[in-house]
## 1
Amino acid sequence: MKNLRTWISNVFQSEEKIICFFIVISFLMWMFVFKGFLFGKIPVASDAISYYEHTKYFVESLARNVIPLWDPNWNCGVNNEFFLRRFNEFNPAYFFLILSAKMGLPYRIGYILFCVFYNFLGAYGFYLLARRIFHYRKSAFTAFCLFLFSSLTTRMFDSYLHLMFVPMIWFFYFFLDIFQALSEERQSPGLNEDCDRIIRDILGILLTSMILMGTYIPFYFISIAISFFLLMIIFSPKKMLRFVFVFGCFLKKHKILIVIVLVCFGLSLLPGWLFYKQSSLSHFVLPGRPSAQNAKHIFEVNKVAIKDWGIMEDIVYVQYFNNLKRFTYAVLYLPLFAFIIFAMGLFNKISKRLLFFCFWGMGLFLVYFPRIPLYDWFYSRVFFFKYFKNLHFFLWIILSPVAILFLTEIFDQYQHAIKKKKINTVVYVLFAVLVHGLVLFVHVKQPYNINSTYFVIVLSLAYFIISFFSSQKNGAINQKLNGLCWVLLFLSLVVQPLEVFSYLKNNIPLGYDISKYDNLSHDFQYTRGRKVLLDSLKQEQLEIGGPQIYYASKGYQQLLSHIPYPVLKNYIYYRFIVYDQVKVVEKDFHYDDLTVSLRGNKNVAFIQPLPENYFSYYSDRGVTRVRNIQDIQGQPEYVSESSSSFKVVSYDSNQVTVHMHYDIDKYLVYNDSFHPLWNAAIDNNPVGIDIANIAFKGLFVPAGEHEITFRFNTMFQYYLKVLFMLIFYAVFLAVLFYGWRAFMNRNRAVTAQ
Amino acid sequence: MTKQPFKQKKCFSGGRQWINFVFNRVIVLCLLFYVISKTFIPWDYVVLKAKLVTLSRLMPASWELLVRATESKETPEPKELDRYVHYLEEIIEALPNRPDSYGMLAYCRYLQGQVGESKKLYNKASDLKPDFFWFNYNLGVIHFKSKEYPAAFQFMVKALDAKKRETLRYTLNSRRIYVPFLISGAHLSPEYVLAQMRFGYENDYKVVVMSLYAMDEISEMVGYANSALREDIDDYAFFHFYLGLAQYKVKSYKLALQSFRTALRYDPYHYEALYYSSLIMQAVGKPQVAHNFLEQSKIHQQSVGSRVEKYHNIDLAPY
């Protein structure tokens, strides 16, 4: 007990130690309240499921030393680049996941822990950012708690927004750090002692922007960054000029660094740009994404769909959860203490920072508010506006953090006024009591209330009053009262959120669970799903349509639209089918013929040969070309296991090699979606791939023993991926290295003083 | 003369300080933004649109739980119904003149055991749409189950006056409430809704007859029973049984026996009809026949149970 008391008094002797202590306690409390999620008892929901699935597939493939460029498990096979771009596979943070997969940790738990620690990294970055902006440590800590205990951090369980806002927070931190270092008047160009810190910041900006430019739709970040820099120029023109000048001098002395930075940044844009170019070739469809009229690109979104749910709708949505016991996913929530700060600050002076945050937030809100003409103006003139399907994301990734910073600035002003004793004691106390009384009155009038609300009001009032008396006129701090203030501040910030978050598990939608990717095997399976007994189905059961798809190959979507789903499901049960006859798909093609053929297990593949293969199909080949499906004889060979005539020799996400030995020519259909980037070779001789049965891959195999390889993408493109990964990890290690050096330099400087 | 310019300067700088003191405040900034946004943004339109879109999002993904509760007669946990209650309450707040929201909320409240609240909501729904069959029907059932027979009779008669076509039209146009519910149960078709209404009318007549019998209004009860038979309402056994009861009460034993026999023709296991037949036989001095009827009634009572208890087991409809 004595040791504990000594330890506690030791902690409360310095503000740095107090903050460390409370940050750790905050993290532990957060993890405690969400323990059901952390131990995998409550599954993730909504968009988070898809990100879980694809990250799992990527990480497990990487653990097998394969970068998965193709996903054969998604709607009979799709180009995996679509999913990789959504979460940016080069983010060094995924190393944690790869490591945990290799160590055998259940993926579900590893993934949730990864998301949690990634969010904590974001929260800590937000704390550091606030330290850069505000004078007082209490203000930075307040910003940290408001961020951690708002509903921003709960979005990891139903969305992927943390993949956007965490790197963005660090981007702004590194930028502000270097801006403050270089724009101060006392600094002369070519500073030597802070060189490591500046290099760390430059590399930090580089790493975070590389991650952001390759994650999801980078235009969210680009528009936020542009608005930020514009406002910086307006609000601090002299400082910006000085920064540019000093930074330019620094770069002149570090030319190699700038070349490396520019090259790395340029390379980081390549994956997104390549994917953008590939996707304009319309090899895949996104039926769930409502396309714009006269869209030039598949990612352009219909304006009506954009307007359907935006920032305003997300704000209005909150009012349906005034009863905090109903708190659930995607409901914007800030701790009550935030509103108390706002009420206390209504009569504060407007500072430059307050104006900055205000204009930044309002500016973004007005630009991305789709129900006013300004948005229509931008939509028609700025190309990337057409790619924003989810404008409400701005509310989560920037407007909420900016609101937190706005409130923290008000809080910081109070800390300053209290410290400098600029307020009359009686007026201050009366005002604090009045504000808290009003807040209490408003809450008592509400039909729904939770108990912690009242505790927070009392704790907050105690904090504001005691903090006033903890600082003395001569500038000294009463240590005991200061320690009590920290405790009161911490409790005011966390008490209500802990209760609110505890209700989340009661209100999440029922029936969500992790999907088939949990039981995915990376080894080759000859069959897929479960066979359907077509004969036992009634006619109306045969007519049912397929599931709604979000992303698939064009051919697969066409099959889903025209072939009864049970028939299709039955057909794709087999990954390989060997035919003796083919029918060329010509202008008179009807899907009814294909349906009859698939349903009747007819020994004919419907092929659309590539133009260069066209004439060869009219020459004599062992495989018969039929014109009429009534002429078809026998059934094809459905490959359900290895045999002497057919065996899969090797398989991974990007390639499959089969060994075939038949006495006559055959036509092999691989029931995996066709894509022009697939290549095939028979005994290492390249051959063309046909589109078989509308959506899949097919090719002629001559009689005899052969090895047929299907490979997605070229080796050059594969090793480009490896190179990108190395670059990202190298930059990350460089940030850590220079960060460590800057830390050691600072410690040496402090010791020397 | 040198003092005047000095005085004017002092007033001017004091005024500037005062303006700076008053207007350089956060609250003024908030008010300024409020005024600007009110001027340039059509808030009423925007908020209304946002509310409607939000309500669509709040709609439960599936009404399966409620469908199961209706079809299997299992009462779900009150907490499980909370999400439907929440959604319906929000619709009522946003669109306070929607009878279907009141009706469905009343149904959910009834399943949660809040009978008083349910009655209030059904009354509100009925006031908003008096020509919708189900609101008055459900009110009648609630009162009947609480043995409040005069009220049950009153509401059931009101329900009988409702327009069938209007009920069908309103049900199939209720895109936020009834249609998603019917879709969840795979019942979205006019034929199903009409079949449900026929069943509702049958129960309606039954409750009217039983209520009037309980109130001892025999002649009126006979009138409604005959109306039901004329309208070709199913379950002839029921109506003939109660006609028999009415005739038994006034000691028209011959007519009563005839009615009970007709009831038994449609439902040979009707233990109460057999029982009353035995009482009549006893009264007319045929003890042996009476004994036979009594023995048969005991057998059917043990094997299939009481029909009258079954008649009283009427549930609310999910409207």
## 2
Amino acid sequence: MKQFGKLLSYLGIAFLTLSISILLILLVGSSVTQAFSSFLSGIFGSFYSVSEVMVKATPLILTGLGVAVGSRSGFINIGAEGQLYMGAIAVTFIAFWLNDLPAMVMIPLVILGGFVFGGIWSVIPGFLKARFGISEVITTLMFNYIALSIVGILVRTLLKDPASSLPMSAFLPDGATLPTLISTTRLHAGILVALISVVLVWLLVWKTPTGYEMRAVGLNPRASKCAGISVYKNIILSSLISGGLAGIAGVCEVSGLHHKLLEGISPGYGYIAIIVALLGKNHPVGVVISALGIAALQVGSLGMQRMAGVPTSISSIIMGVVVLLILARKSLFRRLLTDE
Amino acid sequence: MALLSMKNISKSFFGKMANSQVCFDLEPGEIHALLGENGAGKTTLMNILYGIYSRDSGDIFWKGQKVSFTSPRDAIAFQIGMVHQHFMLVPTLTVSQNITLGLKEKGYPFTDRKALNATITEVAQKYGLQIDVNAYISNLSVGEQQRVEIIKLLYRDAELLILDEPTAMLTPQETEYFFEVLRKLRADGHSVIIITHRIPEIMSISDRVTVLRDGYNVVTAKTSDISEQELSRYMIGRQLQIIQREAVVSDTGSEGISLEEVSLKEKGRERLNSLSLQIAPGEIVGVAGVDGNGQKELVEVILGIRKQSSGKIRMDGVDMSSMSVLERKKLGIGYISDDRHQDGLVMDMSLTDNILLKTHTDRRFIKHGLINTRLVRAETQKAVEDYAIKTPGLNTPLRYLSGGNQQKLILAREMAGNPKAIIAHQPTRGLDIGATEFVQQQLLQHRSNGCSILLISADLEEVLLLSDRIAVLYKGCFMGIFPNTPELNLSQIGLLMAGKTSEARKESL
């Protein structure tokens, strides 16, 4: 009965989302059937479109995973966007600084560098929270603006490609680029990095004593303290990992996709990451599923715009609707969920 | 005609009946006690009346009129007021502000505070409730806060007062004073429902009593027609076991736990003042005192959760004053906190994960850097069986277990591996009689195994029942440490708990 009610409530959310999408499509004056068929063919229509979903999902998985790890120990990381850019800076710096290293050495090095840079960007707010109780929601958010500005400065000065008049770096040396997995697509090895991270994070958080401490601190810091678990240490650690993962997302975007540093490599992945973590219930597997879902929504809506003339901004509205409905689920469907 | 009449009230939570066909009548101007163990459904019944819970079935009649409240606001409009076990006061506001909170008084939002204060004082004095209307709630004792709650209801013209476990935190003297107030209220035509599980209090204050057990009402009787023994039999459905304390002679030669002039200063205030105490192996030292006189601080200083400002704490001669919580626990200290929801358990974690809270650093449970889930599950299964913990499964979040079963899990965890010392702070708070007996027997069991036990309880009866010696704590000082013999002067202890040293000295002469 309980499971059934839960299922019904999710079906209710799906139904409401669908109704609102139909309304929106009618509102912009497009044909609903055409819009939906172009949405679906935008995702599943070709080999390339499916691979595009994975390309978009890669940074979402990594940043979403980072936000999820933070949330598990009570570190609300709004700063994945900035941490992603710090990772992107790291890979560009390292690649040009040690430009003749072979890929075998270079790739692990840039991933590590991205982890460290992103991690530092998140450990500073983590330290401020653990030591002085300053809200990480504010500090991580503010750090986003700083990171974006640093990128802006770097691509115009230190890292600027002298051969171009645009504010961007030169192309990375070959050793620092992630290989493309399938030649006719943009799908790169970043997706593998993301999936390996998922497994590692799952092991760390759910199977090790350290991960146990992080979860306990997130759920009840007071009881953790009384049991002799250091709240300070665990917030620092989880903020480091949280930002580090977002940093790796930045590495993958630069090394795998753009092959150079420029402003706007992320269309807000770091913010969508919060939604990814929320929908994925802060669980690694859930994060993968919700990242794929959101990536598909975005790719599909591109198809919808191309073929049915429905603006892509509809996908953002739908994403917002889904989040709202999920947050409000327990009150909306109270009668179905008396036992929850 | 009955003032209030509740007929065939039923309510279930998670498929478990909390109230089944309960009937309850209240006459005007009577003090009616609602007696039952924890979990018998007393508070549920009153919360249904007060509009906090909705009932599954049944009817409520107030002055003969059928009513149905959907929120406390409705109930207050009908002149019914309730004081909850945990007070609903805003600590940063004054007494007067708390009393008028949520009311739109004349001239709102520019209220004439002076006029209000005069009215409040008038109401309070009528019933002998002394209070400073301009004091901040955070500076008041529990007894005073309770007065504020009652004045709050009287100020709202409550005709019926529902009091949930009102004496749980009071000293014997404060309780007597409190009962005087209730008698004055009754004389003035108010009716009172008092929820409690303390039978002697019922005998002294109530006109009638209704006993609930497992959600059913067992009996309603005039208090003068019923004896304490009958009441306890109705309440628990069997005779109480008498707990016997046998003398324990310890020959382990170890020193147990000792405090040497331990002081704690926090935010400029002296929380603990030069406390010295030794608890020998096989000894239970009970700390009597009103909540908030340094009990929590004492416990947490011993555990290392707070750091003492001066003094030394030793365990078997080992100075652990500067050790971390974890290091101290590894010396063999079990800790039962007074606040299991906040301090003792992670409510959203499973049974297994809560067992891990103490054992996750234990090498036995770690294999190749990973937690050995199978072993932890086996350990948890053993705890569930040994302590008869009722749970749907090992993966159930603790939140869904009853208070007694949650406490049993803490016991299982903290008493595992024969600890050398146990710090038990309110170990039976909120437990029913069966679970209380169990916890007390466990403590005595460990006492005979040579464990040094510090027992802190707001329930003086419990301290008297279990302790070999009794220390009275008042404002962070030990007012005296007495051997617990039949000659112990109880009213002297009561006076010391209230800090009345000179009167206590007279008493002892």
## 3
Amino acid sequence: MPGPDLLSSQGLRLDGRRPNELRRIKCKLGVFTQPDGSAYLEQGNTKVLAAVYGPHQAAKSKSSTDGVVVNCQYSTATFSTGERKNRPRGDRKSQEMSMHLRQALTAAIKTELYPRSQIDIYVEVLQADGGAYCAGVNAATLALIDAGIPLRAYACACSASMAWRAGQPEPLLDVGHVEEAAGGVVLTVAALPNTGSIALLEMSHRLHMDYFDVVLSRAMQGCRDIEIILDRAVRDHLAEGWTKQDIVTI
Amino acid sequence: MTGHVSIRLASERVNHSVSSSNELPRFYTPGEVITGMQDFMRGHGTYAEDDSLKASVAGVMQKVNKLICIRPLKSRYVGEIGDVVVGRVLEVQQRRWKVETNSRLDSVLQLSAVNLPGGELRRRSAEDEQMMRKHLQEGDLISAEVQSVFSDGSLSLHTRSLKYGKLPQGTLMKVFPSLVKRRKNHFHNLPCGVSIIIGNNGFIWLSPQKQDVLYEGNKDEIEEYDLQPVNRSDRETMARVKNCIAALVASKMMLDDTSIMFAYEESLKYPSVKDMLDPEAMLDIAFLAQHRINNAIEE
Amino acid sequence: MWTTKTFLTKTKRGNILKIVREHYLRDDLLCGSAACNICPHKDDEFVLASNPESICALFEYPHYLVLDTNVVLHQMDVLEEDALTNVIILQTVLEEVKHQNTAIFQRLLEIIGNKKRKFYSFVNEHHKDTYIERGPGEKPNDRNDRAIRKAASWYASHLSANNVGGQFPKIVLLTDDEGNRKIAQEEGIVCCSVKDYIENVNGFVGLIDKLSKNVIPESCSKDALYPAHLTPTQIHSGIRNGKLFQGTFHASRDNFLEGTVSVNGYEKPILLQGHIGINRAVDGDMVAVEIFPEEEWRKPSDIVLEDKADDPGDLLEEEAVLLNTAKPADNNKDEITPTGKVVGIIRRKWRQYCGILMPSKFPGATRHLFTPAEKRIPRVRIETRQSDILAAQRILVALDSWPRNSRYPLGHFVRALGPIGDKDAENEVILLEHDVPHARFSEAVLACLPPNDWTIPEEEIKKRVDLRSICICSVDPPGCTDIDDALHARPIEGTTADGLVKYEVGVHIADVTYFVRPNTALDKEAAARSTTVYLVDKRIDMVPDLLSSNLCSLRGGEERLAFSCVWEIDENANVLSTKFHKSVIKSAAAMTYEEAQIAIDDSARQDQIASSLRVLNALAKKLKRKRLDNGALLLASPEIRFQVDSETHDPIEVQAKKIVDTNSMVEEFMLLANVSVAEKLAAEYPQCALLRRHPAPPPANFTTFLKAAMQQGFEIDVSTNKSFSASLDKAQIPDRPFFNTLLRIMATRCMQQAVYFSSGTKMQDEFYHYGLACPIYTHFTSPIRRYADVIVHRLLAACIGEDVTHASLLDTKQADSICDNLNYRHRQAQYAGRASVALNTHILFKNRVEIEAAVVLSVKRNALQVLIPKYGLEGPLYLPSDKFTYNEEEHFQICNGVVLKTFDELTVRLSLDSTNLQHRKLVFQLVEPHIPGFSYVPEQAMDVDAKTEEKKEEKVEAKKRKEARDTKVKKKAKK
């Protein structure tokens, strides 16, 4: 069976987590002054930066009267993986990831508010240790909130995989690089946990129907957990920023 | 090139928050339900879904009668009529200029909304259209006032006053629009000899003070003056003011002439302007300025 | 809830990488002790008893044991005894063991899983108080030792923390590492070596025997008999720069001083000769070899050599015999083989070996020699005090080490299997030696079974096609209780376009998958067993008896669930349409081959059964004709059947299996069903269909066979299976009817093994089945006794919508690993079956002597390999070198003008040599042609055989024994 040793007999994963536990998430909003919104997020050893510019006047070719145009760019730093690798900007992988980011974030942004405008979202992976896309979505959500762009709800992404423990399927939450590399399927879900809607589903391999529901619900649980963590970070950020403003306005 | 470069570890970063014992307001975050009742009006930063009013941005609630808004910590500039803005000309079009004002759509400066040389209101001729680029060309900075807001949210500007118009020599600073305090007057001549335009859109223009005489002078004189080099002491003072603003911004303090002046005065203990870029110094300046503001309020 | 810590690891993969991995430290890990009142245990989480009784005289107070890695690695057999309980296995240890030896790791998991043993695995690496970081410059081993000590002292303080009364278990650290022990004592941890501990254990006799011998380091050169092995790093760099090669060592069956290693880059396996050349490698080990320069290459010796019976002590005997003969006498390049020597062992593949003890001649001695049953394994020196009892028993022994100064590897006694000669003990040996899982079915497995009085539920009948009204019958060998297939045939209305009569023919296979549901304990057990193993007097079932001989077995007159494959066939045996469905059937009769044959032949019988059998028989003949025309091979292997005494279960007579028409009738339809199913599966599941392929043998396999046939005057064309088949048919010698069969037996040994595979792992053109000459094939028709068929049933049911799929079924990787296991078990089952035949042959000849006709299969330097067609027996006929002269070039033996060569027919005397209890063997003695002074002279004068040997003076090439000799190509749908 694929990856039978992803879970020890005591039910711990290779890094000591239990199957339903996320990696440690650390995040910070407003890390740059230049963009309208920015955020830095660490999910375990995966580290990403997100910057948001806009909404601003859309380029004529892209401009749409229906709503704001979301433009995403996902890129990976050369030093982000174990072996240094030069990745040309806009390689296939990044393009695909950009598309996926766009899909997830467009679902969250209230696009109809800003016709003829454009929002640029840049996500840079500084260190990739599995689940870079998820971290990218989470960081981008924070950056959007930092930029004051109206959202329906938090867009959170989380991955889940399958392992077996004592013959029983046991989905793993928030898959790290080691677990990703061990083979097995990785289901990535981007969702608006608040509304319960799913913005994007992506699966790396084939997974049998029987297990799909358990893996999906585990991933959704992860999204909900992430939302709580992100929400706390946003509130902390607000608390830090707001006090001085009010004092001055009095 | 030699010189000291100071690079800090992220872990040694200075916490810029200026301590305050104020109670925190209630915060709302995107997707959070504000109220379930329908007899409220939906304002900015909110949306209705499933019979309830939800926040779409992260911030505090402002309630005006039945209108509920959520004001985010920062956002793009949302213009209001009468706002003073500083902007940059992006494009010269037929009978109008496109101006970047940090708004979510580019603003428009109609040819009919500018004072053409000669001062008086006169008919715009086809010749004027061809001369538009002479007057303002791409990249020029202007100060202007919001004349009206279009239905899609974009702004129409005018410069039909002598205080508005093309900005000659000086420094532009961009800050978050939410940090700019709304005042009656956004043009200030600071006592330190720098004149400052605090645009509502978060663009701040610093320039050496002009002799009042010149306002009355003819066009050639003005141009000639504009081309003269600014002396060093003026430039240093401008840089100091700029760093003061940066310090206030880093601590997320509201900007107006008072806070900037307080900060400037406190900054004088740092003899070299350069030293003010040190994070500790920035915090120090912001903190002292805050202290003085608090004192001023108490008085 | 948890904190995090990252640590750095450097790995070499060409470049040096710095790998940062997360490592979460937890505070919610339990200590597992019932004496603990700190950890928030739930009731079922207590593993360690609160007041463990001490069994060791050294420690008279209750204590838990903490084991060091080396203890687990070396003393597994001690741990497997029920003596030691309340043991803490640290994760550090668990991981080191897993890394070093997966087999031991599995055994350890087994023990931990056994609730009675009270082994608790403690995750010290993720516990916030016991995790330690590797210090700068600290070796991983030292770090692990430190981690173990840290955990031990944590346990000690943890247990004492809230137990003020002093009634708490102490911790004893068992380690064989002296350095570790010393530091532990300094740190105040109670510790002890395993030897001291076990020797002071009361009440468990025989535990000491299981103690593994201490390993003498490789570097110790005192009294060394063997050259030292290279260190792993030396081996690694040697392999990297191309000086050394790695491969699996295969010892020769015939010559204990010879073996081969197949390595990359050499077409032929590398030859290893002599004690020094083999240098302590044991069959199956992964070794590193150095290859000699070309001028020192030799050819494999062709003598048969067995280790001497007595223990010569730690001396290596003269190898002159071997070395003399091995000189390259000619420049015959074909026979020269790359030669080399073992310079290091990369991985030992030691398992436990069955065999017998050869007690030392000195009474009271504790060191004895052990002779394994497997000839390829060297003798083992073990220490036991029970030699008197064990001498008459079959015993199981584990290897521990093979130090340089010992002629034999050192091992220790594991358990006794039973008295020598006892049927059950002997069968046990066969099963163990062939790794056949044969334990009784576990409770969990039996719980998956339906009740004994199970009948088909109504709703199940409704879901299926009801064929109970159709006259279906089964045809099987006599005494068969696991009937997996039944057949029917009936004419149907209408004719084909050419005006041919149409028949409906159905093959109905027992629906095992109805009972064996995926991922149940029953399914896992069946998958592990993979096949039912048939010994002469015993059947090791793949599924429990209730299923195999009752609920699944398509018995006559009983309603059974079946999986049916129904064709429309015209009278020329062209398949017009095929359909598959699940059904309910009621077999009209369960017949034997002979009964069916009689029914067909008896023209008086006009009942439904007889007429449908006749249709089937007629169609089968046409099908067979077509198949042969396509190039299917008819091969032969000597198959015999024992007549077993009903009381003693001892064989009383042996005879070759009788083949009647109905055998091939059933076979043809099973083949047709298998092919039909294979086509369907391959179309539906391009990635995970389980199929069976038979690769065409490489031409090199045939060279010796072709030469031998040429000597008899036959040109065999092996270019395609079609031409091969045709030329085999032509090779007949009128007055030697057995010759053609012999030729086919030899041809069989040139074949490759047919294997199961998953369609995702091979290209379409590799699916070909050479022996059957069909492009695609699988096994569908015997789900009761083959797990492959179970999988195939599931796949087929899923694709016709009669059953749901499940995940593991569609996983290519998993399918591949299932195939590997199937192939392995299948092969082992065949070997076990053969071993059982050999065993029974020995029993048969225990009290008798026979004189029989024999044929020479090949000529060796000191023996002839002969076959007794009547018994299908094969064995060496030793020729003393003082009488016989071996002609190396022409491959014949000559003595007083009598020439013996391949294909010659002889008469031999068969008897059993029981002087060596371990290897009781059949002795072949030459009777005819008569060679004075050598041949056995029967007491009564034998009438001289009329057909004396035709002495053709053509060159005779000796046949080398091939691996492929075990190939059994002829697919039998029935046993």
